[in-house]
# Entry
Amino acid sequence: MLHCFYVKKEDRDLLRFLWHEDNDLDKEIIEYRMKVHTFGNSPSPAIATYGLRKAADSVKQDYGEDVCEFVHNNFYVDDDAIAAAAFLRTVSQGGDVEVSFVLGKAKPAPTGGHTVPRLELCAAVLATQIKDTVVSSLGINFDKVKMYTDSRIVLVYIFNSTRRFYVFVANRVQRIRNSTEPKQWTYVNTNDNPADEGTRSITTLRMQKCMWLNGPKFLQESPGEINATAKESFPLVNPVSDKDVRPEVTKTSVTDGGNFDVTTLFERHSEWDSFVQGLSYLIHLARSFKKSENPCKGWHKCSKHKKANFKRETELFILLSVQRKHFAKEIECLQSHRKLPKDSSILSLTPVLDSHGLLRVGGRLNKANESQLSTDCNPIIIPKGCYVGLLIVRNCHQKVQHQGRHLTEGVVRSSGYWIIGGKRLIASCIHACVTCRKMRGSLGTQKMADLSVSRITPSAPFSYVGVDVFGPW
Ligand SMILES: [Zn+2]
Ligand SMILES: [Zn+2]
# Structure
């Protein structure tokens, strides 16, 4: 838009700059003069406003005087200035009202591409500062100090007590609330706002009658009418879409009756390794919140949970929770050195408890040294029909590269697990395994055509004779 403004020849000396001749960096630096107005100049907004008004004037005949008037009064570039003014209103004993201008301030808006509500909030802060200066300097006991703004959103911010804002808004709202109370603030129409005149140019003719010096009309009215709007409240209209309002975080806590079964969560996983790793990370995170001597704190990412000993610890936790669910009675009996109940499904395994509290298959090697024992001497008992058993079988089956039942079973045993009903579980796992299905499936064969009539009708020899033309020759 600003490129449309030609600069008069005699004024072009004011817009000079130095640059290489013909835009060639090898050539000498010469003096250039701007022919048109450029962006970014400090008077640019004023020129833009001037251009707009000039354009409105030129089409006055086509669109009417009211349109021209509307453009003149309502369109201007004011986003780069904020203003506030203070007025003293005195009422004499006779009831005469006198309004006088005390202090006004206009300044450039803070840089950084702030939104309009933010600039309006800055203006409210400016108003608060002016009010503080006036109240402390005049030394009068005021009956009442009232604050006005033509921005409803600023009033919403000031009145709000339920939602939190981001730093920019929060700091300024805090500043305002330090010096004023929300109930002092009221909405004023832009047309009645004297500070609005401070942000734009004004002709000398209008200066005498402007609100900036004479005060708004509503202040000259009787006291009752000024307070008419004071009881308005300003709720947040759409806090979700307002970028200055922090999103509301709601915390939900679930309390169960102590019957929460952690093993039901295990069924959300389909791979043993990723399951153990995921749970390790969860346990590590839970500890980072609890233990103060832990170097890891709060939500974070690290690879400590991937260490082998941590993985083993998590595996034992999984197996312990599974066993406690299925063999609660047996564990209790073994802990109190009692005999197992006669109907126990693992009676024939003569189970023993190890140092971790895990149920293991008993045997005749109890007198052996620790070093003599391998993992498969006293395998850990996995209950029948338990999902963890299926995960372990799948994992072992993959470890042996999808070989048959016996090899898979061997790996399960050598990994130190005794799955009750393991053979059937392994068979069903291999049966459902997609890779095995593909590799073990029978080969496809061609379906043969029907035999011809000549081959199925009894007849004398050589009644029908055929020649095989594709013989070897
Ligand atoms: Zn960590
Ligand atoms: Zn397989």
Notes: The pocket of zinc ion (ligand 1) is lined by residues 284, 288, 296, 300, 302, 304 (CB under 6 Å). Residues 263-438 form one domain. The longest helix spans residues 116-138. The chain has a mean pLDDT of 83.
